[in-house]
Amino acid sequence: MSNLIAVGLLSAGLLFSASLPAAPAVGEEVASLINKRLGYMKDVAGYKAINHLPVEDLAQERKVLDSSVAQAKELGLASEAMQAFIQAQMDAAKAIQYRYRADWLSAPEPEWQPQPLDRVRGELGSLNDLILQAISTALKEGAPFTEQTAFMRTLQQRNLSDSDKQRLWDALQRVTLQKQ
Fold first, then answer.
1. Which of 1, 88, 126, 141 has the fewest C-beta atoms under 10 angstroms from its C-beta?
2. Where would I find the Chorismate mutase domain in this sequence (predicted)?
C-alpha cells in the first residue's frame, strides 16, 4: 500500500511541477525591467514634444547617472562599468524618443496623450532601482548574464533597434562586482 501512495505522490508532484511556469532566467528578469523602463519613452517623448522640450536633457541625465552610480556602488557594483551600462540605457531611451518624434512628423497620434513627466520619472526611478538590485543580486549569487538570445527577445519596444539592444547587452556583460 505504501508503494501505491508513493507512486501517487510522485505522480502528483510531477503533474504540479509541469503545470507551474518556470521562473525567468536572471538575464530575462533584468531585461524585463529594462524593457518596462524603455516602455515609458513614448510618454517622455510625447510630453517633451507637447511642451516643446528637447529630447536631450543633459542636466537630468547627469542627475540620473550620478544617482545610479552611487546606488550601484552601495550595492557592490563596480562604478565604471555601471556608468557605461546606465549610459547605454539612457542612449537607448533617447533613441526611442527621437524615433517617436520623427514618426509623429508624418503620422501624429492626436487621440493619445502622454502621462505627466513627473509621474513617469518617478516610475523610471523605481525601475532603475530594481534593475540595479537585480544585477547586484545576480552577480553576488554567481549567476552571470549568459542568455543573450533570451535577453534580446525580452527587449521588445517600438523604436528600439537591434543595435540598441546589442549595446545594452554588451554593457551588461561588462558589469562586475567591486573588487574587495
1. 1
2. 10-101
Number of Cβ atoms within 10 Å of the Cβ of 39: 16
* Cβ-contact 86, 69 below 8 angstroms: yes
Alpha carbons 74 and 135: distance in angstroms, whole number: 13
- Reduced to 3 states (helix: H, G, I; strand: E, B; else coil), residue 77 is strand
As a whole number of angstroms, the distance between CA 71 and CA 1 comes to 59
pTM score, whole prediction: 0.84
Radius of gyration of the chain (CA): 21
Residue 113 is inside which H or E element, if any? Answer: none
Angle in degrees, CA 45, 129, 115, rounded to 5? 30
pLDDT tens figures, 49-96: 999 999 999 999 999 999 999 999 999 999 999 999 999 999 999 999
d(C-alpha 154, C-alpha 140), whole Å: 23
Q: Can you say how many angstroms the Cα of residue 115 is from the centroid of all Cα atoms in its chain?
A: 19
52 Ramachandran zone, left/alpha/beta (phi>0; psi -120 to 50): left
CA 44-173-161 angle, 5° bins: 40
What is the set of domains in the chain, with CATH numbers? 25-174 (1.20.59.10)
Residue with cell 557594483: 77
